[in-house]
Amino acid sequence: MRGASRWLALVVPALLLSLACASSPPQDEIPSAEHYYQRGLETLEGRRVFLFFTDVDYERAIELFQEVIDNYPYSDYATLAELKIADVYFEQGRFEEAASYYQDFVELHPRHPQVSYAIYRRGECAFRQMYAEDQDQTPTHEAVAQFRFLLERYPESEYAEEARLNLAQAEDRLAANVLEIADFYFDREQYYAAADRYREALELYPEHSRRLRTAYRLALSLRGLGQEEEARAILGQILEDGADDDLTEEVEEALRDLDRARRGS
To answer: For the segment 171-187, what is each residue's pLDDT rounded down to a tens digit?
Structure first.
């Protein structure tokens, strides 16, 4: 028994030491890019608090990803770390900082497989900062620009569908200002000014959700100006584009009015 105890006293410490060495690099060895990057990912997983909530040390994660960039700037992990820092800022709601990193990623790595993701997230940063229609619309303009860029450059991207939905919402906000002015003129039968504004809304924001009704109002304005043939063409296009039942009924009535006017002339 005494010999066995002596044997355990020698083996167990050695075993514990070997396990400790396996879990971390030797003290005299510089951690690799992969080591820093994986530690950053582990930090983002956080630790469970009170069984339900996860406490994430975002600042520490950023530090670890920055270590990759600073110490291994030409490695693949450095490129991934740049994107991860942007993601961390995004998750924290620090959208201006996140947008800056996403933009840098797109400019520095234009052929990287994750470029479409970075463009989409850049648009999301602006989208999350949009304000009401009567306030500063700079973030809304930026969101529109980024989502359009994504759809033009990567129309088959896995983020394209969400980008289209967000683009329509952003364009709705911008179109609302133009349509308010257009309706003001239309209600006062100032059809020339109204038609200009309706055209502007359709040209600048072709994806806004009220585009068919905007086109309908444009057609009515043109009819008011005596430009019946152009009005007729627009009304016909609305029907082809699939207007809802209520708008279809109004468009068909407007076409009948044009037919009656033609027969009466």
So the answer is: 999 999 899 999 999 99
For residue 96, give the nearest of 118, 138, 126 by alpha carbon. Answer: 126
In angstroms, what CA-CA distances link 130 with 86, 173, 235? 19, 9, 33
* Residue 47 DSSP one-character state: E
Give the residue from 55, 63, 62, 49 showing the smallest Cα distance to 90.
62
Token pair, residue 128, equals: 């999350």
Spatial separation of the C-alpha atoms in residues 134 and 173, rounded to whole Å: 9
Burial of residue 18, with CB atoms counted within 10 A of its CB: 0-12 exposed, 13-18 middle, 19 or more buried = exposed
- How far apart, in whole angstroms, are the C-alpha atoms of residue 231 and residue 254? 9
3-state secondary structure of 52: coil
Contact predicate 120/136, CB 8 Å: no
Distances (CA, A) of 75 to 36, 215, 242: 12, 53, 52
CA distances from 223 to 42, 98, 210, 227, 259 (A): 65, 49, 20, 5, 12
CB neighbours of 12 closer than 8 A, spacing ≥ 6? none
> Based on the number of CB atoms within 10 Å of its own CB, is 107 exposed (0-12), middle (13-18) or buried (19 or more)?
exposed
Tell me the pLDDT tens digit for each residue of 37-81: 888 888 888 765 555 556 788 899 999 999 999 999 899 999 999
Strand ranges for the chain from DSSP E: 47-49, 53-55
